[in-house]
UniProtKB/TrEMBL annotation:
PROSITE patterns assigned: CBM2, GLYCOSYL_HYDROL_F6_1
Protein name: Glucanase
Highest rank taxon of the organism: Bacteria
Natural source organism: Microtetraspora fusca
GO-annotated molecular function: hydrolase activity
Compositional bias annotation for Low complexity: 153-179
């Protein structure tokens, strides 16, 4: 379907399957305090953390995340203010989670409706992007409703705004500096946190679990040993995947993996270990496609079975105290909530929406998983070629916020979001950005970009995070990007920007994502392994991860009978000429592919060959 921005038509698109400046993250978190009024009860503490980058010597940008904690009496309506120490520091409006303004060096933020009331002890997270020139020092003090924050609630007659303590990590009860590379304020991210503590970024300072099953398959392929020790996720894609297989199906169950993770954790010294588990079994799963349909149906009591036969046993195993020191990352239901925004024309998706089954299933999973201290939840947020149009991104963010608000812990039940799961969208397009113009024509007008607001996954994930924060999520949320198969190296990778003055030719010659259409998602020919898993790779990002295990098929290229509920989706057929979701283009899928999840040696070889960064 073609998107016409002026008509405001909603973009209905593809599932998993459509130049960032180089940034230097100089994260800093500083807890800063200020005072109390003699008369009363306004008292507050503030943490102010930034991620900075330099765009030219002496100039750059930054993201500032602040958490205001009301340590006095309840506040109904607030004005928060501070002075930038340096005249070169500027807020880029609009900021998020408050009405921001700046006059000279003075910055003011007033409440929005939803965070107007701050109960005693409550916090709210607000933030903004900014620019700096010269340097970017932390403001020395902050005020709430005219009262300088110093983190204490006992009225102090002598306190005055001008006598507030200067910035100091030890000046506030909530003070706790986080590691410098952490993209978000993280009171407990210190590598020295006791094992099992719920930290801000579970990847920070940790090793990743190596799945022996996947590792053995990778190692058995020529050249595969170069990547066989890479951490990949465990997919619990059916009820039977939770327990160990028997006769003829000797897969490891969840306990086997967690036991092995405890062993790997014990063997790696004092570093924590992160293990990723994909929660993927909603009733009417993957409602807009066929290749990964699952075993449960809404019409056949699927939601109850999901809760009692799938989520409950998983949560019971994860809560076993012998796993309490592991950092268990759960990837919650890919291809689910976004389908309720863009694919309601598909009967199975509209049923998922009208019955509430997807939302209730995700809420149930979040409630159970978040209740376990060492389990982290990351909810699927599609990819830029699916939700990258404002008409899709805003409603998706609203749906995520609504879903989180309906859980027992509210926004806190979500640690972050993941994009590009099992997809192929390039992490970064090095030769053009969304702002590039060719002979006066924006690249957005090209057939490839098709009016999308993003050209790559990193800019999309970062912008999505800001939108989610503006909808109410705390600034502690971090993003993950699945980089397992979005490398786009090899001989077809362009090495320079095109000189064409035709916008379509320019984009086609410049883009590193070599798919035929950005809506193609199945076993893509020409794809390579992407960035290796890495913590804190960019501002706002908790990690690059390998969720889709490279070498496992996305779907069969022709119909193959199976007992897994998997259908045949023609997007996996290399001879199919496409549909409106991929601009009626060829699918670019590899031939001779097995059913989704099964080992596909030819694809693994192709991913090795086209790895970017290249394998050493
Ligand atoms: C399949 C799952 C599989 C997963 C990882 C999905 O597309 O439907 O069965 O476990 O990919 O390969």
């Amino acid at each position: 379907m073609r998107f016409t921005p002026r008509s405001g038509a909603a973009r209905s698109l593809v599932r998993r399957g459509l130049v960032a400046a180089s940034v230097l993250a100089l994260g800093s978190t500083m807890a800063v305090a200020a005072a109390t009024s003699a008369s009363a009860a306004v008292a507050c503490s503030v943490t102010y953390s930034t991620n900075e980058w330099t765009s030219s010597p002496g100039n750059g940008g930054f993201t500032a995340n602040l958490t205001i904690t009301n340590v006095g009496d309840a506040v109904d309506g607030w004005t928060f203010a501070f002075m930038f120490p340096n005249s070169g520091q500027k807020v880029t409006l609009p900021g998020w989670s408050a009405n921001w303004s700046q006059s000279g060096s003075k910055v003011t933020a007033t409440n929005l409706d939803w965070n107007k009331t701050l109960a005693s002890g409550a916090s709210t997270s607000i933030g903004f992007n900014g620019t700096w020139s010269g340097s970017n020092p932390t403001p020395p003090s902050f005020s709430l409703n005219g009262v300088t924050c110093n983190g204490t609630s006992s009225p102090s007659p002598s306190a005055s705004p001008s006598s507030s303590p200067s910035a100091s990590p030890s000046a506030s009860p909530s003070a706790s500096p986080s590691p410098s590379s952490s993209p978000s304020p993280s009171p407990s991210t210190s590598p020295s946190s006791p094992p099992g503590t719920h930290v801000d970024n579970p990847y920070d300072g940790a090793d990743g679990y190596v799945n022996p099953d996947w590792s053995a398959k990778a190692a058995s392929e020529p050249g595969g040993s170069k990547v066989a020790k890479t951490s990949t996720a465990i997919w619990l894609d059916r009820i039977a995947a939770i327990t160990s297989g028997s006769a003829g199906d000797n897969h490891m169950g969840l306990r086997d993996h967690l036991d092995e993770a405890v062993r790997q954790d014990a063997a790696n010294g004092s570093k924590p270990l992160t293990i990723e588990v994909v929660i993927y079994n909603l009733p009417n799963r993957d409602c807009s496609a066929l290749a990964s349909n699952g075993e449960l149906l809404i019409a056949q009591n699927g939601l109850n079975r999901y809760k009692t036969e799938y989520i409950d046993p998983i949560a019971a195993i994860m809560a076993d105290p012998k796993y309490a020191n592991l950092r268990i990352v759960s990837i919650v239901e890919i291809d689910s909530l976004p389908n309720l925004v863009t694919n309601l024309n598909v009967a199975k998706c509209s049923e998922a929406k009208s019955t509430g089954a997807y939302v209730q299933g995700v809420q149930y999973a979040l409630n159970k998983l978040h209740a376990i201290r060492n389990v982290y939840t990351y909810v699927d947020a599609g990819h830029h070629g699916w939700l990258g149009w404002d008409t899709n991104l805003g409603p998706s963010a609203d749906l995520f916020a609504e879903t989180a608000r309906g859980t027992t812990a509210g926004y806190a039940s979500v640690d972050g979001f993941i994009t590009n799961t099992a997809n192929y969208s390039a992490l970064t397009e090095p030769y053009f950005t969304i702002d590039t113009k060719v002979n006066g024509t924006t690249v957005r007008q090209s057939r490839w970009v098709d009016w999308n607001q993003y050209v790559d996954e990193l800019t999309y994930a970062q912008a999505f995070r800001n939108t989610l924060i503006s909808k109410g999520f705390p600034s502690t949320i971090g993003m993950l990007i699945d980089t397992s198969r979005n490398g786009w190296g090899g001989t077809a990778r362009p090495s320079k920007v095109s000189t064409s003055t035709d916008v379509n030719t320019f984009v086609n010659e410049s883009r590193v994502d070599r798919r035929i259409h950005a809506g193609n998602w199945c076993n893509q020919s020409g794809a390579g392994l992407g960035e290796r898993p890495k913590a804190n790779p960019a501002p706002g990002l908790d990690a690059y991860v390998w969720i889709k295990p490279p070498g496992e098929s996305d779907g069969s290229s022709s119909a193959i009978p199976n007992d897994e509920g998997k259908g045949f989706d023609r997007m996996c057929d290399p001879t199919y000429t496409g549909n409106e979701r991929n601009g009626n283009s060829m699918t670019g899928a590899l031939a001779n592919a097995p059913v989704s999840g099964h080992w596909f040696s030819a694809q693994f070889q192709e991913l090795l060959k086209n790895a970017y960064p290249p394998l050493s």
